[in-house]
Design brief:
Elements (H helix, E strand, L loop, with lengths): L3 E5 L13 E4 L16 E13 L2 E12 L7 E6 L10 E4 L2 E3 L6 H15 L2 H4 L6 E5 L8 E11 L1 E3 L2 E7 L13 H4 L5 E9 L14 E6 L2 E6 L5 E7 L7 E10 L2 E9 L10 E8 L7 H15 L6 E7 L3 E3 L5 E2 L2 H12 L9 H9 L8 E8 L10 H11 L4 E7 L5 H10 L4 E4 L5 H11 L3 E11 L2 E6 L4 E4 L4 E8 L2 E11 L2 E11 L8 H21 L3 H14 L16 E4 L2 E4 L20 H8 L3 H12 L4 H8 L7 E4 L2 E6 L2 E4 L11 E5 L4 H9 L3 H5 L5 E4 L3 E5 L9 H10 L1
Parallel strand pairs: 3-12, 18-19, 18-22, 22-23, 23-24, 35-37, 36-38
Antiparallel strand pairs: 1-8, 2-5, 3-4, 4-9, 5-8, 6-7, 6-9, 10-11, 11-15, 12-14, 13-14, 16-17, 17-28, 19-20, 19-21, 25-27, 25-29, 26-28, 29-30, 31-32, 33-34, 34-35, 37-38
Helix pairs in contact: 4-5, 4-9, 6-7, 7-8, 10-11, 10-13, 10-14, 13-14, 15-17
Amino acid sequence: MRRTAILAFALVFPAALAAQGTIIPRPCLPIRPCPAPMPWGVERTASNVRVTLEDRVLHYEVEERFVNRGGGIAEADYVFPLPDGAAFQDLKLSIDGELVAGETMSAEKARGIYEEIVRRQRDPALVEWMGQGMLRARIFPIRPGEEKRVVVRFDAVARREGDALRVDYRRGAPVDDATSTRSDDARGDGRESETFSLSIPDDGRYGDPYSPTHRLVKRTSRGRITVEAEGSTREVTVLVPLRQSSEPAITLLAHATSDDERFALITLTPPARSVRHTPRDVTLVLDVSGSMSGRKLEQAKAAGRQVLATLGEGDAFRLIDFSTDVRTFHDDFVPATPANLRAAQRYLDELEAEGSTNISGALDAALEPESRAGRLPLVLFLTDGAPTVGETRPETIAERAAKERGRARVFTFGVGADVNAALLERLALEAHGTASFVRPSEDVERAVGVVASRLTDPVVTDLRVRAEGVKLDRVLPNGPIDLFAGQDLVLLARYEGDGPATIRFTGSSASGPVEWTERVELPARERGNAFVPRLWATQRVGWLAAEKRRTGGSREIDDEIRALGERYAIPTEFTSYLVQEPGTVAQGFNGPVPMRAQAGGIGAVASAPAMRRSPAQLSEVVVSDTFAAAKAAAERRDARTLDAADAADATSTGRATRRVGARLFALRDGRWTDLRADASGAASMRIVKIRPYSDAWFALVREIPELRDALALGDRVLVYGRDVAIETAPDGEERMSEAAVAAVARGW
């Protein structure tokens, strides 16, 4: 088979790193008659990305597989967008084991080919890549059932972001089910394998890679550290700290679209060896009341053994178990010697479940002894119920604990739906800890083990951040923070002002006071890092939800939760309408509300009878389960990556909704509508209507790059900016003057 390849690159319109090829059916020509009509059956089944870092150069290998599920031979081109900053001269295309070199083409011609492909195919995936260079190769036909494997390799210099190297990968979306014209028979099972891995040298020059978009799984082998991104890897960002012997790595990612919309994500990676680690006084408190019998007690015992396994030289510990009465392994802290640990394990093994739940007595015992100076007191408190003996008023219990705890950090674990979630949440948050909630069917042992392992090796305590030159506002997490070995500190904040600034961290360690600083540049405008605002808003909603349960709530808190839910597409007790399906939507108290019953807490949808209730009553229906609400809020507060934020939302993303960056779109009457349309002020906003894939369409996409993802949803889209909205429709304008395009950009 004769193979030809064309390599094209553009020198204009810089864009975020984008890659992943797509298959373009070849056009029918008079000299080449078309085959008999049949469903187009070629689809991508795998896209695996491997990145290797060597001497500040990133070596990319993208392997993709395509299969023809149709009934006839398919002829097509393979089009691969070139990432910004890639080493074009080294780019090769491997087709079934044979490397094919490419030819160059002018930037203007490359751009023209892109626009023609988009106009002809109207493939949403291609829209995202418009404006960059490309590799184009005719590598087909593909016979029915045949699979083709394509491997693209290219190099790029790693871009420095503060004290870290930044690695980005962006893949195009598969053809959307809601807009695809292929038959179900041709589509197959629709599942596509996606993987992303990054390998770096394990030689002390770099810290552990961190991702603000994904959870990373790490492994070390043969002198290299490899991390793999979990979940969908459509947009991946990884930061690799540049580790020095005595200084931390401080990285800042900003997103700023206006003076009122400026956000920063600040990551602190502590130095490898700069301070002595703080010894710990660990108190484990276990509920052994009658309701803990059976599987829950066995898991609690296993969790206790995990906590004991994290104790090291210099640590001390206590064990407290409670039901109607409160009992202790020893009256005071004992050193974590092998003999004491073995005795504690035997004590755990002999625990039995019976009696009532004396939470106040257990807290009194746990917080009574004062830790010596230079040690970090940690309390891990596990219960499955509400207080039933002793002091039973949650408000009084919380106030007494606040007076008694001193420097102790409290981490609470609520098991089952009968716990007083608001009390456990307040105890933890006021004591600079975390609250975790698990149902009986979930793994209690794992929940406790994750927290216990994270608290193993304190490096700095009472860590605070401040900025000089700009103002950081609504920092999350708020208050003093403890930083443990192997952890990065991730802060999210809004900022006022712009330009050069100093980020200053101060805290305490076993070696004395600690201060780390970094000079940064906070931009007035930065449209990259679009995930930062939604990460901040996710944590803010979680914090506000906890504050509402602690104080009883207020109109101001409700209004802020509602505004954040609408602005950043976060399901809350006031924005449950974000979860919806075609044909099941009716008008509700603040926009359309699905009329389908569904279990859940925050983010659940209302049932049909709820449609006749007042807004206040409806919010009670939506958030009827306090346990689920507290659990959702805790997961939001703990969300440090975009992947975790999406998981915390627990929202349906079926055919009716699509997320694009910080926006959520709903399919309404055949049009993808930005759900900011339901926010105040949107109804009076000026709407600019353009025809899809017209000259005006491309002009706006070039002028406002962030429109690419939104307009890629389909032919009919409505998206809202700051002062102007853009709608694509068949009756829209086909051309716009440069002045008109510039005016829309200013209003955006």
